[in-house]
Structures are given as structure tokens and as C-alpha cells.
Fold these 3 entries.
Entry 1:
Amino acid sequence: MDGDDDGKTSQTRRERRKQSKYFELKQPDRSGPKGKTLLEIAEEREKNLFKLADERRAELAQGTAPAGAADLDEPIGRFGEAVVYTVTMAMLHFTLDVLVYNQYGEKINWATIFSRTAQSIPVILALVYALHRQADRVIAQAFFFALSTLSGCYLIHATNAWAYLAVMKRASPLGTLWVWSVIELRPSLALLSLCLAGAFLRWGNYSVF
């Protein structure tokens, strides 16, 4: 057994010597990386991406970007964005309908609620698709401010002055329109619009319940 082990050891040594003729044996280089590290490369790419994003925003803001460039830069595009908003607003419309039924102690008519929600979807989609991308313009902000203030005050008046059947039909569309128009406003204008609705509530001695 010892002879066999010695023979194997000698054979292994001979193989190592043969390999050393083809491969130069050296100690590993511990002086550090000679080129850029992965972290440095990632940081450079990140800076370039931020630079390109800033340039794209500047082009879009100045209107110098090619037509349709804004849609190409976004994963879902203008129509996809409108669909997302529409789904959210339709869910709000549905929820408000259910809350109105509960408010008046009526048995919930699910068929009617689903039908009203389905009817609201094309209208919401058309409004969002046409107006959402224009919301930053001054004229659009003026429009949304007027719309939010009027729809909010009208909803407050309707829920306090109208018969419950009329409220059940109008509260959900008005509430959805109010919320959407406030969302499209800049924070300062949205706050001002809500303050005006609150002032109208107090001035008319209305109640929220």
C-alpha cells in the first residue's frame, strides 16, 4: 500500500512539473484593481441616465421633443395612463354609489350600481385622455379649479336640498368629478378649492351627514 501511495505521489509531482512548463506559476496580485471597478462603472452609467432624463424633461418642457416622444418614453403611454386613471375613478364611482345606498338605508341594488359604473367608464376615459396630459397648463389649471369648486359646492347643495332619489342618482358622478378635478390641480390650488367648498358649506349652514 505504501508503495502504491509513493507511486501516485511521484506521478502527481511529475504531472505538476509538466503543467508548469505551460502555465507560469505566480502569487496572486494583491495590489488592487488596475481598471474601473463594477461600482464605478455603475455610478457612471447612473449619472449618464440621470443626465439623459434631465435633457428629455427639458426638451418636453420646451416643446422641442419630436411628436410622440413623450408617449415613447413611458412604458404604458398616454392611453394606458388614461386607462389606469379610469379604472381608479370607476372604482371610486362604484364605492360612492354603495355609500349613498347605505346612507339612506336602502337595499343595495347591485345591478343598478354596476350599470351606472359601466356607463361612467367611457365618459371618464374620454375626459382623462383629453385633459390629463394638459393639466400643467395655466388654462387647464383654471378649468380644473373652476370644475372642482363648482362640483364640490353643487354636491354639498344637492345632498342637503334634493330628495334622496335625486341624490342617489347624482351624488356618485358629482363626487367622482370633484375628486378627479382636485387631483389634477396643483396642491396650492387644490387646497384653495377645498377651502372654498368648506366656506360654502359653512355659509349655507349645510351638513355633511
Entry 2:
Amino acid sequence: MDHLFGGHTAHGGMDMPAEGPMCNMNMLFTWDTTNLCIIFRWWHVSSTWTLLLSLAAVALLTAGYEGVREVSRRYENSSSEYMNSLPSMYSTLFDLVIRSISRSCAKCGIKDDDDNYPAARSPLWVGRIVGTAEQQTKMVKAALYAVQVFYSFFIMLLFMSYNGFVMLAVAVGAFIGYMAFGNSPATKSVACH
């Protein structure tokens, strides 16, 4: 009788067929790589060679996270510059007020040059351009944010294998990624999001 589970087996008395390699799941820190599966059953470490390849893949995946963060930062900066370069609603309204004053003062000798005030500078047109640009920018930022959140949770799952070798590979990947892509202060840590 199995006293560990009160007389019951871990699978409720059912024999489960073995599907692929056996995976050892640890909830405590370990250096043991026997039957180590990294996140997926198919990512099974069965030899020293597969361990080294897996650790290199983990390091590259983690380095890639810094690449995604850098792409996001660059997009954030360039979209901010682009949004600032668009005509503002207030400057356009000011231009229209000046234009209407100049038309009413035609008798005063002020000449209205229509080339300086094309229809594209009307508040409605500017609002449409700015609104569309803001929507597109926000959509891209949201997509990049979603990729970062997914990526960071994936790295968290790697770390939660509780295997010391995998944890070191994550740290090495973070180092490589920061050296390759990091242009921001090093105080920002890899967090779940």
C-alpha cells in the first residue's frame, strides 16, 4: 500500500502510458540534469551534448529579450519624435485665426497668401492625421509590449526549472543581451513585466 498518497497512486489509480521521455520536475534548486525537460516535454536533456545545446539556446533566448526591449525603446523614441513633428491642433487654429483676420483686413493692405494655408492645415484634417498616427503608434506599442510580456514570462518559466545550469544560462544570456543591445541604464532588471 502506498502511504504517501493515502493508499492511492498519484494518477488516481490509472496507469498512464508513457508518451516520450520521462521529465523530472523539481520544486527545489538542483544541479541534477537527469531527465531534465526545459519548459516542454520535447525539450528533453538526455546527454551532455544536449545540455550544452540547451544552455546555449536558453542564453540566446534571454539575450533576445534585451533585443526586443531595445527595439521597443527605439520605436518609442522615433514615434515620439514623429508625433511631435506633426502639426498641432492649436497651431493650426492659430493659423486659421490669423488668416481670417488677414482676409478681413484686406483693406489694410495685408495680402492673404493661400499657398501658406493649404486645406491640409485645417483643424479637421490635422485632427484626422494626428488621430490616425496616434492610433497606429499605440497599436505598435501595444504589440511590442505584448511580445515583451510573453517573452519575460517565458524567461521566468526557464528560471523556474530550478536547475542551476539553466539559471546560469539565463544570467549569461542577460549579460550577452545587455552587452549587445543595452543602451539604457543597467538598473532596469528583467521582471515578469
Entry 3:
Amino acid sequence: MDSPNSPPRLRRRKSSTSSIDSFLSTWGTYIPLSNLPTPPPSHHSDDSPSLNRSLSSSLSFETLDPTLLGPATHLTRLLPATTYLHPPSIPLTHALLTRAALPLPLLAFAASILDSLSPRFSAHWRSTCPSSSSDPCFTISADQPPPPSTTTTSTPPTPEVIILSALALATKFADDSPRMTRWWAHEVGEGRWSCEQINATEGAVLRELGWRILGLWRDSVVEGAIRDMERCVPEEEARRETSGVREERAAGKMAQVGLAEVLVGGALPTPEPSPLVDNS
């Protein structure tokens, strides 16, 4: 209860101060969203889920065969889940198939090889495939000195090398004059994996299959794999359309957040000075 001797002017000022304190307790701790640009991902994010997006942008200059989108999707999905921590890249597999330019039956043969791998393949593959080694591809001929940028591989192999090795095995089995490992490493893989890594992966695949791949080169198996690859085309197109709609909605929400930031964070309401009551 206020003192009867307290002047009315003082009581009004105390009420005004209390309202200001209440306002500051509500808005004083508000921290607006940062207007600074998002920093680029660090070099440790190569195996993150955003790898597919970065690979898509890095491969944008390369003309990919649209008819190979279904086979690329199917081959990528056939990789054993125990061989990777994050989903492998469909755009990278699409680029590998475009550069290899193999007929559809050989792609189906490679798909059958991948489909025959069991979950235990991962442990043997990781124990035999080197993560850092010199590339022996260029030491075969003294007339071709090794380029400085492709002589060594210092990063662990990504699971797409299993797809590349399956393509190479299918070609070696069905073709009388197959390509050398050096061609697969530098013409198809563009130096992403060394010849030693590709050879080790091929050996791991053959040991997993017990060196018996003749049964996978049957017409019924190949035709079934071709049908599976053809079904992947509409599924991948629908997934991309859905992804595009989600990105548009996310962009719209970000625009609304930016507008709210301007309205709330950039123009906080300022309390007007309280009028003083003088009853004297």
C-alpha cells in the first residue's frame, strides 16, 4: 500500500517504469536471425548427405545420357547398406555409366553382380581395399610419366568404386578384349580411385561370389535386371519433382522468416514516455 504522503507524480512514474521493465523482459532477450551468408561446408563434409547435391553441381558441365538415369539409380540402390555410412551418389554413378558407354545387357550383368553381394562383403572389402596408396597405373609404361595430381590417392574409397568394379568385371567376362584397369581408373573414374583400389575391389567381389559369375550371365537374369532398371526411371523422376516442390516450399518459408525478421527485429516498438499527472 502506498504511503499517503507519497505524491501522485511519483506513483505515476513508478507505474511507467514497471511497464518498461516488463517490455524489456519480453523483447530485451530477442536475438534476430543472422543476415550473414551461410558459410561453405568444411572439407570434413565430403561424406555428408549433401554430397549428392555438391556432386550434381560439379557434374553440371558434363552431358549425362538421360537414358542411363534408370540404370544409375538401380545400380546405386543395389550397393550393400553395410558399405557406406551415407547414401551413395546417383549423379556420380550416372556419370560413370555415361563415360563407360556400355550396352544395356552389360549394365544388367553388373547389376546382377551387385545384387549377389551379401552384407558380409563390406568387412572383407574394407580390410583389403587400400585407403591410401600410390597409383601403379602409370608405372606400366615408361613413356607415360605419372601426372603429379593423380599419382596418389589419400582419401578412403567411396562405395561407388564397387559399381565401377562391377562394370569392369562384367566387361572382362563378356568381352574378348576388355579395357585395362588404367582406362577404368582415369577415363571412367577420372582419377577418383587408384588402379590398386579397383583391383582390390574386383578381387573382393569375386571372392564374395566364390569366383562363380557364369550363372549371372543367363538371359532370364539379365532380362529381369533390365526390367528393374526401366522401372527406376519414373520413380527417380517423381522423386526429383517431389524434391523440387519441397525446396520451393522451403524457400518460401525462408522468405517469410526474413520478412518477419525485418518487421520484428529491425523495427522494435519504442515505448512512448508516460505522461506525468500533476494534481497539485
